[in-house]
Design goal:
mainly alpha; elongated; 9 helices; 68% helix; 194 residues
Length: 194
Amino acid sequence: MPIFRLLEQLHNFVFSTFQRLAGSWFLGLASRLVFSSALFMYFINSARTKVGEGFPDFLIPGDGAYVQIFPSVMDAVGYDTDAIAFIPYGLIVYLGTYAEFILPVLILIGLLTRAASLIMLGFIIIMSYVDIVFHKVGAETIGALFDRFQDSAISDQRLLWASPLIYLILKGAGSISLDRLLGGKKTIGGREFS
């Protein structure tokens, strides 16, 4: 029995040391870096396909944005964006395009991280819905949870995209972030939040 006690003590020592060293800085930073290293350029490049070149066209969503976000609406109006109502379609296109530029930057630098992560998670859910319903991607792209395949673009990859965002929504950006630098810790109901 003493060997099991020794192993338990060793286990507790090793993992409590890891936990102490990670403190309040590691998981938030790691979640932001994992999300950014995998998806920062993906979303920036996706947004770039939705806008024009040069000033001021890089600020204005073009036909590509409407086709990507509302393919059936564009088809119904013969690909004439002037025939599409700004409310709600144009507004959604503008917000979606700007979200792809702004949210990854906010997450990377750790500014307004919880809100940016929550909106980005919603963005990924809507993006998946649009892919399934409007772009009519196939079953192999949609995939299934708990199956033997790990490479579907929606149920597997996007679930993994969501994981660091869920951590950031619940725990915040951590102590190495602009959120912490600008705002410090907030106490609500006796609990500290960053």
